[in-house]
Design brief:
The chain is an alpha+beta fold. The chain contains 4 helices and 3 strands, in the order αβαββαα.
């Protein structure tokens, strides 16, 4: 069930009892992640944070799914992380890296990685409608969720991120 909305990003007022613990845990993980990344950035570390794209903007027809979508990007701790670290975000389709699913994903990243990650905004799905399997949101007959196979990143995306960090590190070392 829906446990958060845009207006109640940390959780709706009437969360079903059996989902309250899960919601509290997810919010705490997000809070701790934001605090750890902020501390790491202050110590000189670059970072990337990944999560599903915001699917609310009706003007972006490729992304829109539901008006009340409550993505992690609206969590106050993630917003504070973004501001305090001067981080920027980019959204792309994982199918452009060979995934069987479209899976629009957003990366939040710091300035050192920006030159390598900004081009991801060009990675918009170019496949015909219906070309992809559904990435999530449905339970199978055996009780498992259809999102499990889509959880792993495509190998080409893994290489892209590795290349971004290697490029950053090598550039930093050559500047020293």
């Amino acid at each position: 069930p829906v446990v958060r909305t845009r207006k109640e990003i940390l959780g709706i007022s009437k969360v079903p009892d059996k989902h309250k613990r899960e919601l509290r845990r997810a919010n705490e993980i997000t809070r701790r992640t934001a605090l750890l990344l902020t501390a790491a950035h202050r110590a000189g570390t670059e970072f990337v944070l990944e999560n599903p794209a915001d699917r609310r903007d009706e003007k972006q027809t490729i992304l829109f799914q539901v008006a009340e979508h409550g993505p992690i990007w609206l969590d106050p701790h993630v917003e504070a992380l973004r501001r305090s670290c001067g981080a920027e975000a980019v959204t792309f389709a994982q199918c452009m890296f060979g995934a069987d699913v479209q899976k629009y994903t957003t990366l939040l990243f710091t300035a050192g990685l920006a030159p390598m990650l900004r081009p991801l905004h060009q990675m918009v799905c170019s496949h015909s409608p219906g070309a992809h399997t559904m990435a999530g949101g449905a339970q199978r007959g055996d009780g498992t969720w259809n999102s499990a196979p889509a959880a792993a990143y495509p190998a080409d995306f893994n290489m892209f991120v590795c290349d971004a960090f290697v490029t950053y590190i090598l550039g930093r070392e050559s500047a020293e």
